[in-house]
Amino acid sequence: MKGTKLAAILILQAVLVMGVLSHVNADFFPKCCNNCRSFSGVDVCDDAHPQCPKGCSACRVVTPSPHKTFRCADMKSTVDGTCGGPCKKH
Fold this sequence. Notes:
- By secondary structure, the chain is an alpha+beta fold.
- The chain has one helix and five strands, in the order H-E-E-E-E-E.
- Keywords: Signal.
- One of its GO terms (cellular component) is extracellular region.
């Protein structure tokens, strides 16, 4: 009986996680990212920008003063946990 309850709970949890990941916000994601986080099959780029990136649907203020910077909180699902390469400095 314990094994059946545990299996049912694990299956329901897996279904819940897959449902959440299927609705990942992927309207904007940069081609390169210097500060990337990967967790639970999702990539998030934490690079700060002077303006909210065009196409970003979930922009957050990182530093309000002296110069306001923004971070796009959009995510993309990933299979291998890589965000792509870092941005090249000119």
